Fold this protein.
Amino acid sequence: MKNNNRILKYCIILVLSIVSVACGQTNTNQKADMYEASELSAMMREMVIFSKEAKATLAAGDTIHEVPKHFYDLATQTATRGEHLEGAFLAMVPAYIQALKGIERRDSQQYYYDASILACKSCHGVYCGGPLDVINQL
Ligand code: HEC
């Protein structure tokens, strides 16, 4: 089981490295430092891993015990193309934060998990559509 989880994580990381290339295509200057993820990218990758684990936890009928605290700092992470400074980006952060808080309160974790994925989708509908394939599996 542990081994399987590790393999799963490697797969996710592999998929993500492909995705980040897709995301960087709009800006050719980004190619040079393709391997250096922005603060926001790095957090997004952790969010994918957290969401996958959370989904598996709920599917097994278990409780999600914690949400990584640093996810609450989403709004202040520097993005590759300055998205973090844009009003549209900032306006969509609270939906995700509220969903995380709901998961932590343990009201209905399934409801708030679903809300968290909806928040990913709405922001990615505007910014960086590349990861939508990954998000749609969450
Ligand atoms: C408020 C807007 C917003 C929300 C909410 C959001 N994202 Fe993102 N995401 C972005 C932006 C902007 C980028 C591009 C970051 C960059 O290039 O610096 C990004 C990048 C990514 C990437 C690519 C990371 C990489 O390797 O470069 C993935 C994967 C991703 N997001 C998944 C998710 C998932 C999963 C969720 C929900 C759990 C989510 N995002 C929620 C805005 C958002």
The pocket of heme C is lined by residues 16, 19-20, 23, 37-38, 40-41, 44-45, 47-48, 51, 79-80, 83, 89, 92-93, 96, 116, 119-120, 123-124, 127-128, 131, 134-135, 138 (CB under 6 Å). The chain has one domain: 2-135.
